[in-house]
Design brief:
Layout (H helix, E strand, L loop, with lengths): L18 H22 L10 H4 L9 H8 L3 H13 L3 E5 L7 E5 L1 H25 L1 H17 L3 H5 L8
Antiparallel strand pairs: 1-2
Amino acid sequence: MEGQEGRDVGAQDVAGRYTGTLALFVGFAAAARIQDLMSADGFGDLRFSHGYVFQHLVDAEPTVGELAVRMGVTQQGASKALKELESLGYAGRIAGAGDARTRRVRLTRRGTDAETAARHARTTLQDELAERYGRERLEQAHGLLAELLDGFGGAAAVRRREVRRPR
């Protein structure tokens, strides 16, 4: 990689040796690879940002208001994100079980198929990384990143599927 004034910059220097920045860039590159794999599986219309909505629909059928609270956005913001997923065929609204006036949100069949494809893509990426860098090194890196995430207080949000977009 070329840096300032055409000098060759090694991978160690790319993020100025700031661990958080380097981890962020690794995450972006991994997300791009996953999106490529998902695109090859027929889900090229999904974007990284859709994951912030998907995570709340995997194991639940919230109302738009509940979705907004979980996402940390306004009801209008949640509704806009949901309408995009609805127009792409990944999510839909259904009548609430106890009150037909209550509309709940859930993944459609295409949405659950996309979730399955995403899981497969992440597994494929893990296998590619293990092949390239060795499973032991990959597990060590994973362990350290998990500790860092926990140290920053972010592990609980991941476990609860409540990761919010950065401000």
